[in-house]
Amino acid sequence: MGKSPAVELEVRDRVVRISNPDRVYFPARGETKLDLAQYYLSVGDGIVRALRERPCMLHRFPEGVTGEKVHQKRLPNGAPPWVRTVRVHFPRYNRHADELCVTHVADVIWAVQMSTVEFHPWNSRAADTEKPDEWRIDLDPGPDCTFDRVRRVALVVQEVLAELGATGFPKTSGSKGLHVYVRIRPDHGFADVRKAALAFAREVERRAPDDVETTWWRKDRDPKLVFVDYNQNARDHTIASAYSVRGFPEATVSTPIRWDEVPDVDPRDFTIATVPKRYAELGDLHAGIDDAVWSIEPLLEWAARDELEVPDEQ
Q: What molecular function does GO assign, one term (predicted)?
C-alpha cells in the first residue's frame, strides 16, 4: 500500500507541507498524522504560549506512537528558514545543541511534519537560558497510588501557594499525574529554583504526610504515595508542556484545568478528540500566566531556615 499524498496546511501567514498525512499515529481511535497537526492548529495560541522562546526537546514517533520513540534535542534537518533555534550548552559533555525555539504556530506544525508528538520545553527562555522563569510542581504518583490521592495533594499545593501569594496554573500531565506551573522572576539559576522547589515540596509533605513524600531515591519511595518531584526544575529537565499530546495510543493531552475542576478531574477525558471543543469554549486557561509573576525568595528563606541540602541530580 503506497503512502498517501502530501497535503499543504495554511498556518496563518505560512504554509506547511504534511507528508503521509493518513499514517495512523494513535491506534486507539485511529487518529492520523494529519489529525495531530489539526489538533495543534486548534489550540495554536495555547501551545505557542506554553513553548514561546524556550529551548524545546522533541519526542518524535516516525512510525506512530507504538513504534520507536526518538528524543531529539537538536533541530531536525530541513527546517524552513523561519524556524528559530536557541543554542544551549551541556557542560557534562562540553557540547552544544541548537534546539527548536517556538515563536509561531507554524513552528509546531512543522515539528509535527517531522513526526513530533510531544513538546518538552525548558523552564527558561532564549534571552537567558540559565535563569528559569517557570517553577514546575510535578505531582508524580507512585505505581500503586490512586488518582484520588493526587487530587488531594493538588489541593494542598493550592493552599500553600495561596498563603505564599503565588498563582498556580494547574494542568493534567496527560499521564497519571498533575502539574502546577508558577511564573517566577528570572532572578536565580537552576540550583536556587530547585532548592526553592524542594522547600515547597517539604512543606506540602508536612501538611499531607499520609499522601506525600519527598524521598529522593525511587527505590526507597512508598509506591502508594505522591512524590512531589522538585527535580523537574533542574537544568535540562523537561516535562510535556500545556497542550502537548502524549505518546500514548489514546492521544491524551496535557491539559490546563481550573482549580475547581481538580476534585473531579480525570486525565483520560482530555484527548485530541475532546480538547479542541473545550479550548473553543474556555479558551486558554493559562492565558494569564505571564501576568502572574512571583519571587521565589520566601521559599529560599524556608530552605535556609530548614538547612536544606539538595541531593545531587539523578
A: ligase activity
For the segment 80-127, what is each residue's pLDDT rounded down to a tens digit? 999 999 999 988 888 999 999 999 999 999 999 999 999 999 999 999
User: Considering only CA atoms, which of 103, 89, 92, 110 is closest in space to residue 37?
Assistant: 110
| Burial readout 191-226 (b: 16 or more C-beta within 10 A, e: otherwise) | ebbbbbbbbbbbbbbeebeebbbbeeeeeebeeebb
In the chain, the domains with their CATH numbers are 7-121 (3.90.920.10), 132-236+292-306 (3.90.920.10)
CA 171, CA 262: separation in Å to the nearest integer? Answer: 9
Asked whether 107 and 80 are in contact (CB, 8 A), the reply is no
pLDDT at 312 over 80: no
Of the candidates 237, 138, 227, the one whose C-alpha atom is nearest the C-alpha of residue 191 is 237
Residue 242 phi/psi, 5° resolution? -55, 135
Instruction: Please state whether 167 falls in left (phi above 0), alpha (psi between -120 and 50) or beta.
Output: beta
* pLDDT digits 0-9 by tens, 148-191: 999 999 999 999 999 999 999 999 999 999 999 999 999 999 99
Residues 247, 69 contacting (CB under 8 angstroms): yes
Task: Of 125, 142, 126, give the one whose Cα is nearest residue 134.
Answer: 125
Please tell me the distance from the alpha carbon of residue 175 to that of residue 197, in angstroms, as a whole number: 22
CB 173 within 8 A of CB 248: no
pTM: 0.96
* Interval 238-251: pLDDT, tens: 999 999 999 999 99
